[in-house]
Each structure stands twice: as C-alpha cells, then as structure tokens.
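Field reference: sequence -> structure
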Amino acid sequence: MILEILGSGTVDFSGHALKEMGDDDLTTVDCTNVLRGGWLEYSEFDRGSWRYRMRTVRICVVIAFRSETRLIVVTAWRERA
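Structure field:
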C-alpha cells in the first residue's frame, strides 16, 4: 500500500515531522526513500490511529494512513551511532 501511495497518492508531512527532520538534517527525499526501501519495524495504535515505524539502518520514519491513497509522515529521525 505504501508503494502504491508513493506512486500515485499523496504523502503529507506533519509539522512535527518537518521539525524533527530539520533537527536531524533529513529531507523529504530521505524519508521517501525509507518508505520505498525500508522495512516495517512494528505498528502500534496511538492517539486514535495506527502508526507504522518504517526504518533503514540509519533512519526511522513513523507514518499513519489517512486513506487508501494518502499517508502522513508523523515523525522521523536519524539513528545515532
């Protein structure tokens, strides 16, 4: 479903996500690449919706689906070594 949304749907970024991304020098392209090539670490029901943690070795992106054609990046961060 993520790949379908990336191809023809809408990906939004919350204000919180944009702030956290800026703090860790991440771009929307970085986050999109995680969604495209990362793996699902886990999911949890939080604040009224399911949140999905997608990750690579270096970056973690948390998303929530808003519909079958729209998702939102809730937050993102760079892993520290």
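Note: The two ends are 31 Å apart (CA to CA).
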